[in-house]
Amino acid sequence: METTRQQKIDRLIQKELGEMFQRQTQAMRGVLVSVSNVRVSPDLSVCNVYVSVFPSEKADEIVKNLNDNVRSIRYDLGQRVRHQLRIIPELKFFKDDTLDYIEHIDELLGNK
């Protein structure tokens, strides 16, 4: 069970990263990157970020790119939330493939 503090930090990081990615992907036509979920560890040192990418074919490439540039993303995030957080957690990016999973289940059930 997450504490209230963890939930607040989850929402703050999700909002700020979502805005950062939205601004950065405007130059890439036809690609949409959104932060679907954020989970901060109980000691607030590690943050797992789940990213949803459209089109899903580019998801692995974009998540790899995010993990390769995690230091600069963490720095930019720190600049945005420096008045709310004292320590910026380490970021780990993961692909959120729940929408693909839902589509697959619908296909198996014959709903499409």
TrEMBL record:
Query: Per the record, what is one GO cellular component?
Result: cytosol
Please provide the record's keywords in A-Z order: Cytoplasm, Ribosome biogenesis
Q: What is its main location?
A: cytoplasm
From what superkingdom does this record's organism come? Bacteria
Tell me the InterPro entries matching this sequence: KH_dom-like_a/b, RbfA, RbfA_dom_sf
Q: Which GO terms describe its molecular function?
A: ribosomal small subunit binding
Query: SUPFAM superfamilies from the xrefs?
Result: Ribosome-binding factor A, RbfA (SSF89919)
Keyword Cytoplasm present in the record's keywords: the answer is yes
Pfam families documented for this protein: RBFA
One Gene Ontology term of the biological-process aspect is: maturation of SSU-rRNA
Annotated compartments: Cytoplasm
**What Gene3D superfamilies would the database entry show?**
3.30.300.20
Q: Does the keyword Cytoplasm apply?
A: yes
How does this polypeptide assemble, per the annotation? Monomer. Binds 30S ribosomal subunits, but not 50S ribosomal subunits or 70S ribosomes.
Q: What does this protein do?
A: One of several proteins that assist in the late maturation steps of the functional core of the 30S ribosomal subunit. Associates with free 30S ribosomal subunits (but not with 30S subunits that are part of 70S ribosomes or polysomes). Required for efficient processing of 16S rRNA. May interact with the 5'-terminal helix region of 16S rRNA.
Report the HAMAP family cross-referenced here: RbfA
- Family the UniProt entry places it in: Belongs to the RbfA family.
Name of this chain's protein: Ribosome-binding factor A
What organism does the record attribute this protein to?
Answer: Alloprevotella rava F0323
